Amino acid sequence: xxxxxxxxxxxxxxxxxxxxxxxxxxxxxxxxxxxxxxxxxxxxxxxxxxxxxxxxxxxxxxxxxxxxxxxxxxxxxxxxxxxxxxxxxxxxxxxxxxxxxxxxxxxxxxxxxxxxxxxxxxxxxxxxxxxxxxxxxxxxxxxxxxxxxxxxxxxxxxxxxxxxxxxxxxxxxxxxxxxxxxxxxxxxxxxxxxxxxxxxxxxxxxxxxxxxxxxxxxxxxxxxxxxxxxxxxxxxxxxxxxxxxxxxxxxxxxxxxxxxxxxxxxxxxxxxxxxxxxxxxxxxxxxxxxxxxxxxxxxxxxxxxxxxxxxxxxxxxxxxxxxxxxxxxxxxxxxxxxxxxxxxxxxx
Length: 348
Prior knowledge:
By secondary structure, this protein is mainly α. It folds into two domains: 52-241, Leucine-rich Repeat Variant; 264-348, no CATH class. It is built from 18 helices and no strands. The longest helix is centred in the N-terminal third of the chain and has 32 residues, at 32-63. The chain is globular.
């Protein structure tokens, strides 16, 4: 059997005593190809990346330009509801107050909403577009959007338009708050067309079982809007709505009355603060949703109580204090417990 021979004699023998210029290859100036690889090609790659980034930034900026978005809405397609949603988000951003006062932009959107109502399409995307148009329009601080919102609030040709009506009534509440802040409450309360639409919505009823909850949500939205507006007619109606069978309607009526210092809200506010109140979570599907809903209702009650105490210093707070102390001893989220503790401190 043969054995592998030793190849070590074939390895280069770098004698340590040999001069370095005999061991190392000669130093030569870099050629053009080397410079191209080292500098020019990376610069080209970086330039391409920067160009792509700038292009996307420009497209994003153009895509968030309200007038460009309105132009897209005029040629309605399957994605128009997303454009309307984007407009809503832009109008809600802090720092866009001037945009909310743009009469021309507001009128353009109102005109598009009216056209969509005229078309009367009932497919999901068309209805969703009208919903988001209402929400966007409600953010404006100009009066020329009101007729379109009132029309959306009163147009019902199919069950799917409950969603549009609900969105438009909520938009009327936001718009009314904006106009009240600018021109005073009387300027809003004196608009009889607005008051009539909200009062009619507050009386919404349906004999159909499938539509019962949808009608109740219309009443709930109307209660919220009437609470924003205030005034004698609104508060009389809200007092009656404290007995509504639908919990959200009662709760919106109570918070609306409390906003104006009305003690009639106390009974329902106590109900909203009860950690064991099953009415609050009766329509929720899991424990997480139940906790979120209970937290939302309690937070609304906290804010309403805070406002009522500020507006009416003679309110009898004994029942509210008992309810708040119960919350402070509960295992509800810490933020809820702290809110209750702070309210108790303010009441002392």
